[in-house]
Specification:
Structural class: alpha+beta
Number of domains: 2
CATH architecture of the largest domain: 2-Layer Sandwich
Mean pLDDT: 94
Distance between the termini: 29 Å
CATH topology of the largest domain: 60s Ribosomal Protein L30, Chain: A
CATH class of the largest domain: Alpha Beta
Length: 241
C-alpha cells in the first residue's frame, strides 16, 4: 500500500518551444527547465501532452493521401467530420459507435484505448496527427532520457485530451506511463478500491496543460505518493492489443 497524498504542487513548463517532427523532446524539456531556472526533483511526475509526443515521433498523415471508403463517406455525412478524418478513425480502430445521432465518434483504438475519434488530432485542414505507436514505450524513452539529461529520478505520464461518451466536454486521461504504476489500491475502514492512478495524475495536470493554443504541453506534479512501476497504461486495459 502506498501512503496517501495529502497535498501536491503543479506547474507548467512555459514558454515551451514549438516542437517539430524529429525533435528531441526530452532535450527540449531539459532545456526549458534550465532556461527558466526551474528544477526537477526525485519523485516528480512529468506529464506530457500526447500531441507533442506524436509530433516528435513524426506521426503526421497528409489527408491528401487518404481515400475514404463508402463507410467513411456515410459516417462523414452523419457527423459532419471530413471523410478523410473519418477514414483515419476507421483505419486506427477495431470498433466504433456514435455517442449521439450526430456524434462524436467513440472508437476503440487498435492499441486498446476507447477514445473520441480514435485519438486522431487535426493538423489544420490538410493533415492529422495519429497517436504514438507505443505510448508506454514513448513514456519509457522520455523518462530514461530525462534521467540522463538531469540526473533526477522522475516518472513520466503521457496524457491525452478526450471526450466521454456519456457527457459533453473534454477531460484528460493517461495513454502511456513509465516509473509510476497505472493502478493503485486504497483501503479505508476495511474497504479496498482499485483506482486508475495515472488517469488521476493526467487529470490533475490537465488543469494547467495546454488546451487549444495555450502552449504548455508539459507539466510537473510534485508531492504525489505513487508506487514505482514500468507496467504501463496498457496493462490496465480490458482490451489489450
Amino acid at each position: 500500500m502506498t501512503a496517501p497524498t495529502s497535498g501536491f504542487s503543479a506547474f507548467a513548463l512555459e514558454p515551451f518551444p514549438e516542437i517539430h517532427p524529429g525533435d528531441d523532446l526530452a532535450g527540449a524539456i531539459a532545456d526549458i527547465i534550465t532556461r527558466t531556472g526551474s528544477e526537477l526533483r526525485d519523485g516528480d511526475l512529468v506529464v506530457v501532452a500526447s500531441k507533442v509526443v506524436s509530433i516528435a515521433e513524426k506521426r503526421y498523415v497528409d489527408l491528401a493521401s487518404v481515400t475514404p471508403t463508402p463507410q467513411a463517406l456515410e459516417l462523414s455525412a452523419r457527423t459532419g467530420k471530413p471523410a478523410e478524418i473519418v477514414q483515419l478513425i476507421l483505419d486506427n480502430s477495431t470498433e466504433h459507435f456514435l455517442a449521439t445521432e450526430r456524434g462524436p465518434i467513440i472508437a476503440r483504438h487498435t492499441l486498446g484505448y476507447q477514445l473520441t475519434s480514435a485519438g486522431i488530432d487535426r493538423a489544420g485542414s490538410e493533415g492529422a496527427w495519429l497517436l504514438p505507436l507505443d505510448p508506454d514505450g514513448s513514456a519509457r524513452a522520455l523518462r530514461d532520457a530525462l534521467i540522463t539529461y538531469t540526473g533526477v529520478e522522475v516518472a513520466v505520464v503521457i496524457a491525452d485530451s478526450d471526450g466521454r461518451a456519456d457527457r459533453r466536454g473534454a477531460t484528460v486521461i493517461s495513454i502511456g506511463a513509465a516509473g509510476v504504476a497505472p493502478l493503485r489500491t486504497t483501503e479505508h475502514d476495511g474497504k479496498r478500491q482499485e483506482e486508475t492512478l495515472t488517469d488521476l495524475i493526467a487529470a490533475a495536470a490537465g488543469l494547467i496543460l495546454g488546451q487549444r493554443g495555450r502552449g504548455a504541453p508539459v507539466a510537473v506534479l510534485r508531492g504525489i505518493n505513487y508506487p514505482a512501476s514500468d507496467e504501463g497504461v496498457a496493462t490496465m486495459l480490458h482490451h489489450r492489443p
